[in-house]
Design a protein that fits this description.
The protein is built from twelve helices and eight strands. By secondary structure, it is of the alpha/beta class. The protein has a single domain, classed as Rossmann fold. The protein has an eight-stranded mixed sheet, sandwiched between helices. Strand 7 and strand 8 form a beta hairpin. Helix 1 packs parallel to helix 7. It is globular, with a radius of gyration of 18 Å. The protein starts with 22 loop residues before the first helix and ends with a helix.
Length: 296
Amino acid sequence: MELISYQDEGQFVSGHVACGGCAEALAMRVILNTVGSDAIGVVSPSCSAVICGGYPMSAVKIPMFHTTLESAAASASGVKRALVAQNKPDTTVLCFAGDGGTYDIGLQALSSAAERNEDILYICFDNEGYMNTGGQKSSSTPLDAITGSTPSGKTTRKKNLIEILAAHRIPYIATASPSHINDMRAKIEKAKAIRGTKVIIVLIPCLPGWGVADNAAVRTARKAVEAGVFPLLEIEDGVNYRLNVSEKGDSIESYLKEQKRYRHLDAEHIARLQAESDFQWRRLQQRVADSPERRS
């Protein structure tokens, strides 16, 4: 078992209203303490906004600007430009958004910020659905998952936002998991030191939305990584791919069985999801092998 290397600096406090056992609160704690006090946050309507709370009852120590669902990246861009105008270019502008405000409603703002290469650190907490409004599907919801708006299972695949962002050729894209805290902390530190648009997508198993036991969010996240369903990776400049966990297990069945949203699946459906996971893993390995830094 890897020893966790992490120092809590008091940037995230108790008393917030996240669900008991929520992995998003854990991830926010790690991220905020790694970023430090010289930061300003922007948060769109989401579980993150509920956890952060409104003044003066916020769970975070840095200033948080609550914006609209579609404009998180645009708002963060404006905050950063204001700081630069005040001769404070080193203050980190940290954006918190969910998958609904990133993959769907806020994609236009994020794409525009990426095209301009705005100097922001954008964190997407991906719980694969609109979980604080009834658990409806988003374009991040995986194939066959039951949601409030897909009661028989979603019929389309999860949007590949990683490759959409890579096409923008921004300096840094990464995935992270609350099951791998050292990896998450290292990626936040790395992103903080880079100028330009940085996007980190963090997998957040939703306890009520996924039907996960209160004590199983981190375990479920780890199984997603181990099964290759949610690979831990980095992409620099849109072309250099790197896998942080380079091996995966053979079966995703253990991951699926942690969640009620997949309990309707029979062996044939599970086999189809396994084949899709294997295909995507091979594609990702090829991306790594074809990276210019590997061939140089």
